[in-house]
TrEMBL record:
Pfam families: SpoU_methylase. One of its GO terms (molecular function) is RNA binding. This is RNA methyltransferase. Keywords: Methyltransferase, Transferase. One of its GO terms (biological process) is RNA processing.
Length: 288
């Protein structure tokens, strides 16, 4: 049986990682070693554990510790001994999170090592590239759509929100631990990771590239040429500014989603779901 430590003071040092450290501080907490992230809700935590992420501590709403969270804690502590499990009343958890958790459970976890771009793309037919998508809610929603529709991986350019930020992971429903992903890194000669170096790497691996953008010379996302591509990278840009002109200039296709009723565009997360569905290969994943 696991040992519970009740926290009654919001200022207790055990709560620092949950309440007082920012996402960048958590990322760099053990520099130059891997930092940590916070997973929120039993489903997200369970998917992170199944993906091999190592827990460092738990913070659980007092009633949940002996209820819904009990089995998950027991399974986890059977593998990793002596991990602290802190409990607190809902009022303290609400103060930490900023809103009332419906299934109050948090876990501080060691960040996993990221694969290379080439490892993500090996054997992949459909991938998404996110260019400077800075809103973590949008990043999480894109990952959820990518998982549901069966994309093979997600690549992120510098400037994107980290998929392991708490909000992104929560909105994704933990699919950030199911879909392979990584960031583009700088080239060996110090060249910027994106778009030039990144585009060349995609091309070298046999990918054709399709930029989702509103331009006069764009083709419809329903165009059959897209579905017929053996390997396709669908590139989505940040809200407002969209994709960089340099990125679009290097792409094989400029693609639009047809709109009605005078609507000019969709939110990038909604657009991603439509685009992923249209270019799918028919081999959608079914992992839970």
């Amino acid at each position: 049986m696991f040992q519970l430590t009740e926290i009654t003071d919001f200022n207790a040092p055990e709560l620092d990682v949950y309440a007082r450290l920012s996402e960048p501080q958590l990322y760099n907490l053990n520099a130059p070693e891997r930092g940590i992230f916070i997973a929120e809700s039993p489903k997200v935590i369970a998917r992170a554990l199944r993906a091999g992420c190592r827990p460092l501590s738990f913070l659980v709403e007092k009633d949940q510790a002996e209820g819904e969270a009990a089995d998950l804690l027991a399974q986890c502590l059977e593998r990793w001994k002596n991990i602290p499990v802190y409990t607190a009343q809902m009022g303290i958890l609400t103060k930490i999170i900023g809103y009332k958790l419906t299934r109050g459970m948090l876990c501080a976890m060691l960040r996993p090592s990221l694969p290379t771009v080439e490892e993500i793309c090996r054997g992949a037919r459909r991938i998404a590239v996110l260019e400077r998508v800075m809103n973590p809610t949008n990043v999480g929603a894109i990952f959820r759509s990518a998982a549901a529709i069966g994309l093979d991986g997600v690549l992120l350019t510098p400037g994107c929100s980290d998929p392991l930020y708490r909000r992104a992971a929560r909105v994704s429903m933990g699919t950030v631990f199911q879909i392979p992903w990584t960031f583009f890194e700088k080239g060996k000669d110090g060249e910027d990771a994106w778009p030039g170096e990144g585009m060349r790497r995609l091309c070298a691996m046999g990918f054709r590239t399709a930029a989702l953008a509103l331009r006069e010379d764009s083709i419809s996302i329903e165009d059959q040429r897209l579905k017929q591509e053996e390997r396709l990278a669908l590139i989505l840009g940040t809200e407002g500014d969209g994709l960089a002109a340099e990125t679009m200039a290097d792409c094989d296709y400029i693609v639009r989603i047809p709109m009605g009723h005078g609507v000019d565009s969709l939110n990038v997360a909604a657009a991603s779901a439509v685009a992923f569905w249209e270019v799918r290969t028919g081999s959608a994943a079914t992992k839970s």
